Amino acid sequence: MMAASASSSTLAAQAASRAATAAWTGHDTWLLAVVGISIAVVVVLISWLRVHAFLALMVGSFAVSLLSGEAVGKVADSFATGLGNITGKVGILIILGAVLGRLMADSGGIDQIVATLTGAVGPRRLPWAVTLVACLVGLSMFFEVGFVLLVPLVLQIAKRADYPVLRVGIPAMAGLATVHALVPPHPGVLVAITAVHAQIGLTLVYGLIVAVPCAIVVGPLFTAYAWPRVAATIPESALAAFTTSTTAGDEAPRRLPRFSVTLATVLLPIVLMMLKAGCDTFDLVHGTPYTVLEFLGTPVVALLVAVLVALGTFGYGLGFSRERVRESLSRSFPPIAGVLVIVGAGGGYSQALTDSGVNSAIGRAAGHLHIPLLLLAWLVAALMRTATGSGTVATVAAAGIVGPLAHGLGSTQAALLALSLGSGAAFLGHVNDAAFWMFKEYFGLSVGGTLRTWTVAHTLLSLTSLAGVLALNAVLVG
């Protein structure tokens, strides 16, 4: 294992050396300008003209191809090829994750997790419990879906316990944002993993290692500092909506799934992927047992197994009819349509950058500037997040720029590079982020108060996770 690490480090060093010594040309300068122009096009379309990210990334892709001198006939082909590749690799994971999350929500599994963990702690430890709840819920849900589902419960907890709403609201946001940025199978991390050719199981292990201290810092610790300094009021409209949604007789499950069953179902795909990663890393199992673990630990299979188990634990096992389960499954797909098209467009943008030779120019620029690859990945993703407001858009765009520089990296380095992209994409969420306004409205904040909570928390998450990635790199790679 040490020999493999040394070999990968040598390859990376040789690649960096070639990049640094290669002659810089005027065409390379123009290609870097093309990147800036294309990013500006995407930002203007999304932020100013309010064009959907799919169309903005498509136009940005065409701009890259045309301005870099690609043949006109290949412009559309580059985008279509990239869209098909990334959708085929990542799309099925997004779909299965959405199904698992919807089954858990409709069965009352989220309510069970919240009730059990918050009931087991006192008021002083409530922010810690809510952070843990949000992390668990966020493992199988997209940020926006988990946020919308958790916020009414958080508001109700604050009202019933006569508790400052931000003392539970910030931890809920922090837990969801942390796993969304760092832990697969979330779409941004999956795109980064695919782009840099990382192992999903290994990235999952390292992502969890980095996520734990990040969730603590951004959740309960930052909350203790922030909530006394920012005024917030629980909106009555949100509480009314919560009451209506939970008392409708035709929507309430006959009984809630047990906490242990809910937790086991949610963690099942994570455990399967981590077992496979452990076997690959430490060579623990051989023969038929390894073949079985290798199959079950494949991300698509692990999520499919969890969904099939969830049909029982969150559906038929609770007495739901086949029609009720079918309705839950059907409701899984509309919320992820936007995510799928954005991820696909990001793949098309990425392919256009690769075909134009922009990535080689960036590699040479990084070599001349002596920017470590992990920092370069974080910086590009952070700039894209600041400009576009979307963590997913930032990750897919940055992955397209940085991904081709990952050739020759070892498995550990590739996994850490994927996490650097996710870390950068969490940076500085502000007024161009739709979730920024959701947080403001749900918790009755002013714009200034939202900047001092939401924006500061995301910046802290990005910087803390970057520090964690760099620390792991120093320990594991040297």
List keywords for this structure.
mainly alpha; disordered N terminus
What would your notes on this structure say?
It is a single chain. The chain has 478 residues and is an all-alpha fold. It has one domain. The protein contains 22 helices and no strands.
Radius of gyration: 22 Å
Number of structural domains? 1
Low-confidence stretches: 1-21, 240-253
Largest sheet: none
Order of SSEs, N→C? HHHHHHHHHHHHHHHHHHHHHH
Structural class: mainly alpha
Instruction: State the helicity in percent bands.
Output: over 70%
What is the residue-mean pLDDT, rounded to a whole number? Answer: 80
Q: State the end-to-end CA separation.
A: 14 Å
Net shape: globular
Proportion of beta-strand residues: under 5%
Using DSSP, what is the number of strands?
0
* Count of discrete alpha- or pi-helical segments spanning 4 or more residues: 22
Topology overview:
Layout: H1 2-21, H2 26-48, H3 53-67, H4 72-107, H5 109-119, H6 126-138, H7 143-160, H8 165-182, H9 187-196, H10 200-226, H11 236-247, H12 259-282, H13 287-296, H14 299-313, H15 322-330, H16 337-356, H17 358-369, H18 373-388, H19 391-402, H20 411-424, H21 434-442, H22 447-476
What is the compact description of this entry?
The protein has 478 residues and is an all-alpha fold. It is 78% helix and 0% strand. 51% of the residues are buried.
